[in-house]
Amino acid sequence: MSRLFGTMRQVGIVVRDIEAAMRHWVEVCGVGPWFYTDRLAVTAFTYRGQRYDDAHISIALANSGDVQLELIQQRCDTPSMYRDFLAAGHEGMQHWSSWPEDYDAIYQRALASGYTVGQEGDSPRGRFVYFHQEGHPGTVIEMAHATPERMRIFAAVRQAAVGWDGSDPIRRQWPTA
Length: 177
Fold this sequence. Notes:
Blueprint: E1 10-14, H1 18-27, E2 34-37, E3 43-47, E4 50-52, E5 57-64, E6 67-74, H2 81-87, E7 92-98, H3 103-112, E8 116-122, E9 128-132, E10 140-144, H4 148-161, E11 170-171
Parallel strand pairs: 1-6, 2-11, 7-10
Antiparallel strand pairs: 1-7, 2-5, 3-4, 3-8, 5-6, 8-9, 9-10
């Protein structure tokens, strides 16, 4: 557990081909089911303080126990930390995420501790921020506000993985439970 951000809840994996990545995690690793959306609804997206309203980001979520995996493929040229990560020759774990209820307090503590905002935005599920303090690939820290809507979706993703029998491995909608 991070003393500053709390429990690591998610591993964010930036990929060039999300369809191939989902298949790999299902067929090779036995992890699923995946909940996929082609265009994540994001508003007020900023990268290094500049606002962009045209980000096209596809994501897929699945759980392995209590840890959520998030596959991310950016499908546009909008400046972002995902694009920077790929341009640096990386593919794979780009960040880890915590989901605090006291989002604003931890956000301010992170800034006071020397972290800077790399990118952030809002969504129907709540706010999120990626702090730019990466000393090693995969150690960007994301915080996603633990809103009731986000936690409802994340709980349903986790529950779907419990006892999953391998059927319907890629679900092209968010869970409804």
